[in-house]
Amino acid sequence: MDFYRLSSRRVLDHFKVSPDNGLSPSNVESKTKEFGFNELIAKKKLNPFVLFLKQFQSFIIYILIFAVIVSILANEFIDAIVILIILIFNAFFGFIQEYKAEKAIEALKKLTALKTKVLRDKKVIMIDTKEVVPGDLVLLEEGDKVPADSRILESVNLEMSEASLTGESSPVSKSSDVLAKEVPLAERKNMVFSTTAVTKGRAKCVVTSIGMNTEVGKIAGMVSEVGEEMTPLQKKLEHLGKWIAAVTVIVCLLVFITGVQDQGLFTLLKEGRILEFILSSKIWFLTAVSLAVAAVPEGLPAIVTISLALGVRRMVTRKALIRRLPSVETLGETTVICSDKTGTLTKNEMTVKKVYADSKIFDVSGDGYSLEGKVSFNSKPADLKDHLIFKIGALCNNAVLSSSSKDDEIAGDPTEAALLVSAQKAGINHKVMLKQWKRLKEEPFDSVRKMMSVVVKDPKTKKSFVFTKGAPEHLLLLCLKVLKNGKQSKLTSSLKKEIHKKNELFASQALRVLGFAFKEYDNHEPLEKNLIFVGLQGMIDPPRDTVKDSVAKCKEAGIRVIMVTGDNRHTAEAVAKNIGIEGSSMNGIDFARLSKKQQMKAIQKISIFSRVEPEHKMHIVDLLQIRGEVVAMTGDGVNDAPALKKADIGIAMGIKGTDVSKEASDMILEDDQFTSIVNAVEEGRGIYENIKKFINYLLSSNLAEVLIIFLTILFGWPLPLTAIMLLWINLVTDGLPALSLSIDSNPKDLMKRPPKNAKEAIMNKSMMFNIFYVSILITTAVLGLFYWGMKTYAGFPEQFYIDKIETIVFTSIIIMELVRIQAVRSEYKLGMFSNKYLVFALSLSIILQLVVLYTPIGFYFGTVPLNVQDWIMIISATFVVYFMNLLGIFIKRKTPWFRDG
Prior knowledge:
The chain has 33 helices and 28 strands. The chain has about 900 residues and is an alpha+beta fold. Strands 10, 11, 12, 13, 16, 17, 18, 19, 20, 21 and 22 form an 11-stranded mixed sheet that branches. It is elongated and about 120 Å long. The protein starts with 7 loop residues before the first helix and ends in a 7-residue tail after the last helix.
């Protein structure tokens, strides 16, 4: 149906909805059943069975399956069954890891879903965009993203960005007028379309189409989602994994060739006895392949995804919602946070404290949005209920304040709510006034003009007036006269100076100041021209309780905090001083006038930017990035979107932020607080450290296994481990224990270190030392135990002798690798029992090993029970490795060469 060709009334009748009430809950329920959810067809949901089968898609796994076939051909059925069981267990653990990661990412996508403001059952409520149904009455404001195709019912100066749908780069003006004839999509001026954005004004619309029936849904058709991009860290680790795999394959080939050569099996090949060669060299083939499985850290990508996803979930509990996984890595590298003042560094609980009118300064008592308080002059009550400054404040206003005036019953801008409260304290009932004074026209506030104007009709005189409020310095430029004691006079330069002084006085007291003006409405000239100045209202927005500590925390962490605000310079400086932001200040326009060279020099010292316009934010980010800084930038408006996109971390406000700013951001603050940014940076650093722990542990352990096998062959000793033992080691040490490292708590000194260098390789000098030093320690200790076992059990029957020394090596590697985890954590000063999941994982791994040693299952692994003497030797060697590991950490800390990475 062409709804743009129908009147508003007919569209409402079609959907059986009242323009004042909206849909009832029963209407919504029936429409949801009929039309479904407002969403485009996404990619197919995760299939657990397919994900499980995917665990077997590996070249090494294919070789192992071939090994199972060889074992069956050689009548080694026990080997074949055990290898299969371990393969299935490995696949199961891989499946669990990837499934958790996918589910976590799915949950995060739900959390990032946009909200829509609708009128339902006479109440204005926020709902998930996917819950919008045809017939819903949607309320749109500047910065909102349109949830579904809708017919405009009412609008005020509405302009839309429809580039994503029509290709039209300039904003398009909209109205509710009926279009009589058929017109193309781009000319349907009384319709708004899904995914487009409001760039100016506001509107009330009725939803006509949702989901795949919208214009954008028709274009999307059956196209599925684009695949998830790997994070930079995942790409680095994948590259590292390939490098390790290549080296491992070479070593494994050497192991196989050396073993086969020692047994003289190559003669079978020369004689063409290929099948006999394959069956005879089975043990070396299995050992080489199993060694490859043990050495290659195939779990790295999954562990990284889980670490990032779990970390992001933790951030949600700290009121920071990450929209893109790679942003977690960038958070850990952040060197500069550019933060808005109002609502982020301050509480955004505005309370008018000072009023300047009739050349006098009046005091206003009370706190927050409580209506208790009064206006006084020289400590005596002042009767200002008829004063124009309060009338303008109440009528040039879109906020809604309940009679009880509780914070949770305020709708709209906090500054406007504060003006309603001050009017009430002056004796004006703003609700009555709103009914009496009819609004005829509105020019909404924007960040360039820095003011808002309305045309209202006086119920007594029937005359129409323009009421304007805005930034005093901008407003005064448009004023020709001033109102004093009810009389108008010329606004002289001396009077202007006096007003500017009062503005600066209020601002120096950390008050946010607004100017107020009016004139009789003249239809032939612009609204905001030839105004009459009325006065100033100064309101306090106190710093948030935790912000001072958070700024100090940033300083300790080597992160610079820059305040970027649209407020007056004096107000900004006063707030900055209260919360501990150090550095010089400059007005945004003055900064823009500097040469590029001067700006580059100034940006190093300026920590307070006032009267900043959106394009200034973009330029500040650009200059900081040229200097090599990793920049986090906050924003909430439509015009902030370019700066949020440009910043390394764009941070949108969850409460006062527009949909456009949220879409452009990497992170959304659910509580709009600066402290949440700092918490997110800390989590980002912690996630990176946990991933480094995992790599450190995994590679040092795996390298030790490779060295043990390789060196015993070089020494001409018996093979220390069977293929099944190597696979089991891989299962019990690289499974749950390694995964538990990803949920370790953050080190206490994490925010006392400088930010991580964005160009720093994962395998830096410190980690490489750890990996090689520890792998050599474990290799030496295990080979020592192997040699001791050969000497101790030399006189025993051959099969027992071989089983015994293999069991000693097998068990000692598992115990040393499990203890190695705590050695890695001790470098971060983490207690042994600080991670309950790790304690459980380690306990389970040890129990599983004991089951293999002391139950009939050991027969299938080729193990024999260990006696007290064996355990004493293993535990003693493990303690030596552990303490030598700690000594290495101590030496590394004291060596300057390691301190830069």
